[in-house]
Structures are given as C-alpha cells and as structure tokens.
Amino acid sequence: MSVDAAQCYGLVGDNGAGKSTMLKILSGVHAPDAGQIRLEDRTVQFQREIDARLAGVEMIFQDLALCEDLDAAANIFLGRERRKGKSRWFSFLDHARMHKDAEEVLESLGSVMPTDRQVQTLSGGERQLVAVARALEFQPKLLLMDEPTAALSVDKVAVLLDLIERLKERGVALILVSHRFTDLIQVCDNIGVLLHGQIVDEFAVAGQSVDDLTTRMVRQMSGIGTNG
C-alpha cells in the first residue's frame, strides 16, 4: 500500500483482518517481521514509537490515549511540555505559553474550545480535536487514524471529516481506518481492503458511485471478490 502527500488512504476490513496491527507497525508500536516501510523514498525501520514520531509519523489511537484528569493544553503537550528558566538543571512549566499555543492549534482546526477544561468534561468530538491537535504539534508527514468516528455523533463526524480535508490541504498524508463506508468514500482518495493480513484490493474513489464502491468493499471483505 502507498499514500501520497495531501491524500487520504482508507483501510477497511472485517474484525481481525489486521487493520489496527498494520497501523501499529507503521507507528512503531510493533516491529514488522517482513516487508519494508518507505518514507519519502527512503527505507525506515521503527523499533519504538519515538522512532516513527521523529520520522514524521503520528497515530491517533482508537481510545485516543488522553489523560482524563489533565486539561486540554496539558494533553496536547504531554511529554514535551513548554518550559521556562535558563538553568539546565532547574526550570518551570510554562503554562501560559502552552495554553496560548494550544489555543492557536485548536483555532487552526476550527475550534474555540477553552484549553483549561479537563478532558473528562469534554465531548467525544472535542476529545478527537485534542488528539488531533496533539498529533499536529509534531508536524506529521503521515497521520494514522484508527476508527476516529466510532464514538462520535453525526454532527461531530461531519466536523472530523472536514478536519481531514483541512489536513490534506496542509499537505499531510493520512491513513484512515473506519467501518463507515460513507465516511471513507467522502474523504479518501484511495481505498484498500485488508483480508487476513493482506491487501486484496485497492482502488481509486473518484469516478465511482457510492453503491459500486460499497458493493466492492463488502465483496472483497467477505472474500467473494478474491475468488472471482
């Protein structure tokens, strides 16, 4: 599979097909036992998540991996907090700067959410925005999203899909795992079908009807397409 800059690649498959595992390999959570990962025409090897992050790969996990008892700004900068103080041995957290920078990145995503609210008080859509904002702070070249619409209401799904389009305009490449075919068809440039850990079909979305695309995905996921 491959995805270009400013494009979104949709990945579908039945439960247990290997979708989340593939994303975890691409993000450095798991090491591959075969094959190659190439980023910007060079082969890369990720032994840890930090290796993928330093290479420009970010992942938004299905459970979002947010700290419930911290506010939005603290979550966005978790593990790379802004600090003030000139001493190499002693410094303070720069809360004012973190809230300011968090507000700016959230505004760039179309949100005016207060950054001092604890994550446990946020809606599903707001939590998604915090997770995306955290990923964007690392300036990713490739953003991986595992079932980001699973727990969202209809209106929040629309917000997230609009956000994906904005990320594409920024030149970010995305891989989107979702069981919602209509969402994939709306924002993806290409779709791949995963069956038993292998891509069994891959096709462009443009120029095809929703019915034809949906039928093709269902047939390939069930294994019908692979048998003719």
SSE topology:
Elements: E1 8-12, H1 19-26, E2 37-39, E3 42-44, H2 49-54, E4 57-60, H3 72-76, E5 83-84, E6 92-93, H4 95-108, H5 124-136, E7 142-146, H6 154-169, E8 173-177, H7 181-187, E9 190-195, E10 198-204, H8 210-222
Task: Explain how this protein is built.
It is built from eight helices and ten strands. It is of the alpha/beta class and 228 residues long. The chain has a single domain (8-227), classed as P-loop containing nucleotide triphosphate hydrolases (Rossmann fold, 3-Layer(aba) Sandwich), CATH 3.40.50.300. The strands form three sheets. A six-stranded mixed sheet has the order 4-7-8-1-9-10, sandwiched between helices. The protein has a two-stranded antiparallel sheet with strand order 2-3. Helix 6 (154-169) links the parallel strand 7 and strand 8 (173-177). Helix 5 (124-136) runs parallel beside helix 6. It is globular. The two termini are 22 Å apart. The mean pLDDT is 90.
